[in-house]
């Protein structure tokens, strides 16, 4: 009986609180926009050829800031990898991983994550998302493979930290070139529409914004995957190195 | 070859659905992404291409999906709701034999058991699933299979074996 009373009380509180939120203490939604917001909503598409204000702010209006931020993150990852480096390369061993069921489920999940991450990155100049969230999502796929299949499977398939750092380096060089190329024509660094086309056969590509997103996607996915690889090195190995 | 097309199509559908658009840009990038991912992954995902042509398997899959999401799920939910209110529970882990052999059939049975409230597959070993059951009525493996997974196995067999 006591149990039923408690359950009914929980149900009553849940229902009551939802009713209170809906009708009495209504959550206030702002009804007016600040001038700055109005400016971005009205002009983003004209200034940057992108309908997505956030992407336009990040990669165009304050593009130089983002390029430097990307550089800072790159240096942070390089620093991290330098700390975790061990002599004699990555230790290889027999792959163990989880059960057959987990592996089969993971195969499908990894494919779906890769698909969704590509959609996030490719639509970064049109809808919320972009290179960073897309790359982080793709890195989740590899982080899932490590416990389920073992890190050795990634190494056997040729996904080594050296290659990943090289991909990251290539992507960041590309990113730097996209930012610098307008200077050749006497334009400002990180110029978008005056140098890169906003539309291609009527399709919105938002000039440099889609290029930045694609390169950032590669850079973040490879960088985070490299970190995940290094973090899966057993602690004992480092202790051994310190003792030596 | 057909496995690459089927995997590519699956990727393309997921891509388009997630992007929520059928614009030229989405379709073009979707085609690119589905081609790359299907080349990379189809060989790991599909072993027996012949099964992909079998219309009967597809119809069974659609029928099972609808039946599972409606009748089986609702029955399992209502059963657990009743048990929560009455505290009519006696949890424990039982050994359930699995007769289907193919990897996706086993995966479907595991997913079906876990997705219905009241039963969770916690491990698998030597053709047995170890199921955490909210109300253990029997520890006898064959009888437990009859109650927990017989129906799931029937459809998994028809779809994937």
Strand content of chain B: 5-15%
Estimated share of beta-strand residues of chain A: under 5%
Q: Quick one: which chains have the greatest interface?
A: A-B, 26 and 34 residues
How far apart are the first and last residues' alpha carbons of chain B, in Å?
Answer: 21 Å
Order of helices and strands of chain B: HHHHEHEEHH
Global geometry of chain B: elongated
Amino- and carboxy-terminal Cα gap of chain A: 67 Å
If you compute it from the alpha carbons, what radius of gyration of chain B comes out, rounded to the nearest whole angstrom? 19 Å
Domain count of chain A: 1
Class of secondary structure makeup of chain B: mainly alpha
By DSSP, the count of extended strands of chain B is: 3
**Oligomeric status of the shown chains?**
heterodimer
> For the report, how would you describe the main beta sheet of chain B?
3 strands, antiparallel
Specify the helix fraction band of chain A. Answer: over 70%
Q: Specify the number of helices of chain A.
A: 10
Helical residue percent band of chain B: 55-70%
What strand order characterises the main sheet of chain B?
A: 1-3-2
Main sheet specs of chain A? 2 strands, antiparallel
What Rg of chain A do the Cα atoms give?
24 Å
Describe the structure.
The complex is a heterodimer of chains A (244) and B (161). Chain A has 244 residues and is mostly helical. Chain A has ten helices and two strands; from the N terminus they run ααααααααββαα. Chain A has a two-stranded antiparallel sheet with strand order 1-2. In chain A, β1 (199-200) and β2 form a beta hairpin. In chain A, α3 (53-61) packs across α4. The longest helix of chain A is centred in the last third of the chain and has 24 residues, at 161-184. Chain A is flat, with a radius of gyration of 24 Å. Chain B is mainly alpha-helical and 161 residues long. Chain B has two domains: 2-50, no CATH class; 54-160, no CATH class. Helix content of chain B is 67%, strand content 12%. Chain B contains seven helices and three strands, in the order ααααβαββαα. Chain B has a three-stranded antiparallel sheet. The longest helix of chain B is centred in the middle third of the chain and has 32 residues, at 55-86. Chain B is elongated. Chain B starts with a helix and ends with a helix. The chains are: A mainly alpha (244), B mainly alpha (161).
